[in-house]
Write a structure and sequence with these properties.
The complex is a heterodimer. Chain A is α/β, with parallel strands linked by helices. In chain A, 48% of the residues lie in helices and 9% in strands. A four-stranded parallel sheet of chain A has the order 1-9-8-7. Chain A has a three-stranded parallel sheet with strand order 4-5-6. A two-stranded antiparallel ribbon of chain A has the order 2-3. The termini of chain A are far apart. Chain B is built from nine helices and five strands. In chain B, α5 crosses α9. Classes of the chains: A alpha/beta, B alpha/beta. Chains A and B meet through β3, α8 and α14 of A and α4 and α7 of B.
Chain lengths: 388, 216
């Protein structure tokens, strides 16, 4: 097993390498991020990826379990992603749907070679809600792990690279505590209880989110996959998701910058009866950035296609940065020409004026040349867009 | 006829209790199990159609599936008593390491509604458990779902275990789940892929016909 002192030494080596690398570039990844988030045009498009296991980057000395439980080893994997694989926005979080639940006493298992698994829902019946307490971010579960990740980042690559941190959004936390099917039944049969549960979830999110904001100096991303269509209907979204997410986003606004965090994941906007209006309503929750997946740009995997340029215009009008995501199968299957074609095409449609980033998730076993093709394409997308 | 219509409406509206009562009432008034299955199947198709056209979302589909299961629970004892030909037998589970249950449950409910006998092995199912169940119930179809790209790596192991047990040519292998795409069928040594519960029913019906040497 690799020791912490060896990991620390390797991270320092990577930091040095990164310093040399950025010295030869017109701006650091952090400066590029700031430009994009300010709706200005930097030198070129910014590209990033998410990983969910060390194996995504062929790192075999750190186990998947360690990735999710040991902040230094997790940071090492992220630093390898930045320096060796060109990632411009590493993530200072992992397992974002389980951190709060574990801190409240939820059972999570950590297989050596797979992502953490959540046990039975903590709220088996509505009365169980009264037994739950808002966790202490400094002491409970892996909340200290997430805070430590932020501190490590500030010591290491923080001056060169923007790295968001994250907590679970209120509706997705409610799903995790109660279970999806149970929560759907509650929405039908006992909506008052669901509102009570969501009030509690907001308290948990805001408490942990403020600890992250104070430590990291950046508003955390709220993970909200469960509140996206088709997991909920528009009717459920408007009553049980939107008001609570909006409250958390606003409570976690960074007083120093005025910015809020990103809200993840894609909203299934294309599935709404009027996707333009639905996107407006999503943006009205006040987040500073929003993802849009390949499924909805191209209209596959059960989603319809939205007009990317129009999607960007609506986001821009609401001061929301747009992050487009390549599908993991596109990264896996390639070919490199296809990956390049998509990245460049989307940049032409949505890149002008900043406020647009390109991202993906790196699956295990992805051919290295596919990742290279992704970044080759990103680097070829220079501003101004009309000169492409 | 009126009770069968009530059953259809209860399923489409996702009213579990009404579906249970309508199924019981239809049987009591002389409807045959085959007629009930036909009604449940029609309701299942209607739900699938509404989902695919964006008229309903997963919560409605889930409620409909629960109602369908409640109705089928009333019909199964009658099927066993009088003997009705099933659309096929399916052994299904989420692959080892994967605890995601929601999509698979929907597939189970829709297949059941379409007249399949479904043996749900649950979540986190090792390849050898699939093999054991295949030996026990001799299904036409083995269906496996994987939600994450990490767990999708387990899909070929199920086909390999079936080969090792000498069972691969006796069943059709259907894969699905959020991290699975149609391009993964050859890699997983599978026969087919379904992107959602409604499609799983159509694909499964075709696979049964193919296995029996009929034109799908």
């Amino acid at each position: 097993m690799i020791t912490h002192s060896e990991i620390e030494r390797r991270i320092d080596e990577l930091v040095e390498k990164m310093k040399q690398k950025v010295a030869s570039e017109p701006m650091t990844p952090l400066e590029r991020s700031i430009k994009i988030w300010s709706f200005q045009e930097p030198d070129r498009l910014q590209g990033s990826f998410a990983i969910f296991s060390p194996l995504c980057l062929n790192i075999t000395e750190v186990t998947t379990r360690e990735f999710y439980t040991d902040p230094l080893k997790m940071y090492y994997c992220q630093a390898v992603g930045v320096v060796e694989w060109y990632n411009e926005i590493p993530l200072m979080y992992s397992d974002p749907y389980h951190i709060e639940i574990e801190a409240m006493g939820g059972a999570i298992s950590f297989p050596e070679d797979s992502t953490p698994m959540l046990g039975e829902p903590l709220i088996q019946n509505p009365a169980d809600l009264l037994k739950l307490r808002v966790p202490n971010p400094e002491t409970d579960g892996r909340m200290p792990y997430v805070l430590e990740l932020s501190r490590i980042h500030q010591r290491k690559l923080g001056s060169m690279v923007f790295a968001p941190t994250s907590c679970c959004g209120p509706f997705s936390l409610a799903v995790g505590l109660r279970g999806y099917k149970n929560l759907l039944n509650d929405i039908r049969r006992d909506p008052a209880f669901v509102h009570q549960l969501l009030e509690f979830c907001c308290e948990v999110v805001i408490t942990f989110g403020k600890a992250l904001l104070n430590t990291h100096k950046v508003s955390p991303t709220l993970q909200e996959a469960w509140s996206c269509l088709p997991n909920v209907s528009p009717k459920i979204f408007y009553e049980f998701c939107q008001p609570y997410i909006k409250r958390c986003v606003e409570a976690l606004r960074n007083p120093a910058t005025g910015l809020t965090g990103t809200v993840f994941y894609g909203w299934g906007t294309s599935l709404a009866p009027d996707w333009r209006q639905f996107l407006q309503d999503v943006c009205s929750m006040g987040m500073s950035a929003l993802p849009l997946t390949e499924e909805e740009i191209l209209g596959h995997s059960g989603y319809k296609a939205v007009d990317l340029a129009e999607f960007k215009r609506i986001c821009r009008a609401n001061n929301v940065v747009l992050m487009s995501f390549l599908h993991t199968n596109t990264l896996l299957d390639g070919p490199p020409e296809r990956i390049k074609e998509l990245v460049v095409d989307w940049f032409r449609k949505a890149g002008a004026g900043g406020g647009y980033m390109q991202s993906c998730t790196i699956p295990i076993g992805v051919p290295r040349e596919h990742v290279q093709a992704f970044f080759d394409a990103v680097w070829s997308c220079k501003f101004p867009v009309c000169e492409q | 006829m009126e009770k069968l219509e009530a059953l259809f409406n209860a399923i489409v509206e996702g009213d579990e209790e009404a579906a249970r009562q309508a199924a019981q009432a239809a049987l009591s008034e002389g409807s045959t199990p085959a007629e009930l299955l036909e009604t449940i199947n029609a309701a299942s198709h209607e739900l699938g159609r509404r989902y695919e056209t964006g008229e309903c979302f997963l919560p409605e589909l889930f409620a409909g599936a629960e109602a369908m299961t409640a109705a089928v629970d009333k019909v199964i004892p009658e099927i066993e008593r009088v003997g009705v030909e099933l659309a096929g037998v399916v052994v299904i589970g989420s692959v080892e390491g994967d605890i995601h249950d929601i999509g698979k449950r929907l597939v189970c409910a829709m297949l059941t509604g379409a007249g399949f006998r479904v043996h749900d092995l649950g979540v986190d199912v090792p390849a050898e458990k699939f093999v054991e169940k295949v030996q026990e119930v001799q299904p036409e179809i083995v269906a496996a779902s994987a939600y994450m790209t990490t767990t999708a790596q387990r899909l070929p192991q199920i086909a390999e275990a079936l080969v090792e047990a000498g069972l691969r040519d006796k069943v059709k292998y259907l894969i699905g789940g959020a991290s699975v795409g149609p391009g993964m069928v050859p890699w997983a040594h599978a026969d087919a892929y379904a992107s959602n519960a409604a499609e799983a029913v159509k694909v499964a019906s075709g696979l049964v016909k193919a296995l029996k040497g009929m034109t799908p």
